[in-house]
Design a protein that fits this description.
By secondary structure, the chain is an alpha/beta fold. The protein has helices at residues 3-12, 38-41, 44-53, 70-79, 130-144, 163-173, 189-195, 216-224, 247-255, 319-332, 338-344, 350-378, 406-414, 453-468; strands at 91-92, 157-160, 178-183, 200-205, 227-233, 260-264, 295-300, 313-316, 391-395, 418-419, 421-422, 444-448. Helix 6 crosses helix 10 (319-332) and helix 8 packs parallel to helix 9. The termini are far apart. The relative contact order is 0.16. This is Pyridoxal phosphate-dependent transferase. One of its GO terms (biological process) is amino acid metabolic process. Keywords: Aminotransferase, Pyridoxal phosphate, Transferase.
Length: 469
């Protein structure tokens, strides 16, 4: 038998997976502090999670672990229980989206038809159409920069096809730098931070005992170690907390001329800290010079205008950044749908937005108070009521052992037609350098009170049944 033939047979008989970078066989699973618990080894959902994130890759050239975020993975598991066939019978408290109907008192009705102009048949600029960029700049000047000498112009705004596309564009133009990100935070940051090799992602764990608060001294520590970019959601997903002034201003002072501050403000309208007066949270308020301060703000119609399906978002920042961000859209995403950009312009009239935010905040505060009371009545401990967003970061430690971690609780909820998101997905691990089963987020789930009240009631009833079992 030829040596090539014998080598081929030996290769065919191989039963283990090879690390393609080092040529060393991969272990089935690495544990950093011990073997899996009985709950994990006997749990179908734990096995599915491990299979989706480690192990054999059967298709050459494919890394399927990059194919889904936490919410998508949860939806795929729910589909196995019939979610796609009868979604109306489910309480989807996992999707990070608000209710989109027109029945919130005080909110303006959304367009049901579009007047599609001849110009919108053409390719649009990858940085967005100028009238919408002007409207966004005007909104921020009116709401956050009145009386300040430095004002945003249309050249400080890039329109992007959704928040994820905006994050990817920002990642594409970052220089060689340490990028500091916080744990827990938005699941899609994981992909953004791992796809690009022009920077190194550095995790910054936050303390549960401290309410996952970002203190200015923590930012100072990161800058002292050489971190050149700070990325965070604010208001914060998934904890429902917010960093507001004067601390936000102090953080921006620390970053000025030292680090780029990337502020994901998609939940800026869901602010309950000022008695639902319509005020929104934004780093734009503390910028001194719009072209010198390295502050990038990302927001859009998705959350506070309750139009996730439109995929219209924006990035605001110094002109030099915005030129690069606009340009890289030509090879990343091609730009935002032009007819929807045109339809968005009248929605951004500042007085209309102010009234909209008042109605939005009152409505979602009522939903927050409902679910907090229901869950407390069931026996959950909620130490900090969210002061922003539409999320609860729900601690499961007091529950019976078999449902006291996020994955098993998620599995039990599926059996009652309820979807939540296991907290482990918010423990961002872009380089896969840690074993996530050692995660401090393992005994949490994210509960969304974004859906309509009847869905929230159905979801709370389902969770009640889980506990009664």
């Amino acid at each position: 038998m030829s040596s090539s033939m014998s080598g081929a047979l030996a290769f065919a008989a191989r039963k283990f997976s090879i690390n393609r970078n080092t040529g060393v066989p991969k272990p089935a699973r690495r544990f950093s502090i011990g073997e899996p618990s009985q709950n994990e080894t006997s749990s179908k959902v734990h096995r599915q999670f491990r299979a989706a994130h480690e192990g054999h890759l059967p298709h050459a050239g494919l890394d399927a672990t990059r194919a889904s975020t936490g919410v998508v993975w949860c939806s795929e598991r729910a589909a196995e229980y019939g979610f796609l066939e009868e979604p109306e019978k489910w309480a989807n408290l996992g999707q990070g989206a608000p209710e989109v109907e027109d029945d919130i008192e005080g909110c303006f009705p959304r367009p049901k038809t579009l007047d599609i102009s001849l110009n919108s048949r053409e390719y649009g600029p990858t940085a967005g159409i100028k009238p919408l960029r002007e409207a966004v700049a005007h909104l921020y000047n009116e709401m956050h920069r009145k009386g300040q000498p430095s004002q945003y112009t249309w050249e400080n705004v890039a329109i992007v096809p959704g928040g994820r596309a905006g994050l990817i564009r920002i990642a594409a133009v970052l220089n060689n730098a340490y990028v500091g990100f916080f744990i827990p935070d938005y699941t899609a940051y994981n992909e953004m931070l791992s796809l690009f090799k022009n920077f190194a992602a550095i995790p910054v764990p936050l303390s549960e005992e401290d309410g996952y608060h970002i203190h200015p001294n923590k930012i100072a520590e990161e800058i002292a170690r050489g971190t050149g970019v700070i990325l965070t959601s604010n208001p914060r997903n998934p904890t429902g907390r917010v960093v507001a002034n004067p601390e936000l201003a102090e953080i921006q002072d620390l970053c000025r001329e030292r680090a780029t501050f990337v502020s994901d403000e998609f939940y800026s309208g869901y602010n309950y800290t000022s008695d639902c007066d319509g005020s929104t949270i934004s780093a734009a308020e503390n910028v001194i010079d719009v072209d010198e301060d390295d502050v990038l703000i990302i927001d859009g119609l998705t959350k506070r205008f309750r139009l996730p399906g439109w995929r219209v978002a924006w990035i605001i920042g110094p002109k030099e950044f915005i030129r690069a961000i606009g340009s890289c859209g030509s090879y990343l995403d091609g730009g935002t749908n032009v007819p929807f950009q045109e339809a968005a312009i009248p929605m951004l009239e500042p007085s209309l937005v102010q009234k909209e935010m008042v109605a939005l905040q009152r409505h979602f505060r009522d939903k927050r108070d409902y679910v907090v009371q229901r869950l407390r009545d069931m026996g959950f401990t909620i130490k900090l009521v969210p002061d922003s967003t539409f999320y609860l970061w729900l601690n499961l430690e007091g529950l019976p052992g078999q449902i006291s971690d996020g994955l098993n609780f998620f599995q039990a909820c599926l059996e009652e037609k309820v979807i939540v998101v296991p907290g482990i997905f918010f423990d961002l691990n872009p380089a896969r350098r840690r074993d996530l089963f050692d995660s401090p987020c393992h005994h949490f789930v994210r509960f969304s009170y974004g859906p309509k009240m009847d869905v929230l009631k159905m979801g709370c009833d389902g969770i009640q049944r889980v506990l009664e079992k």
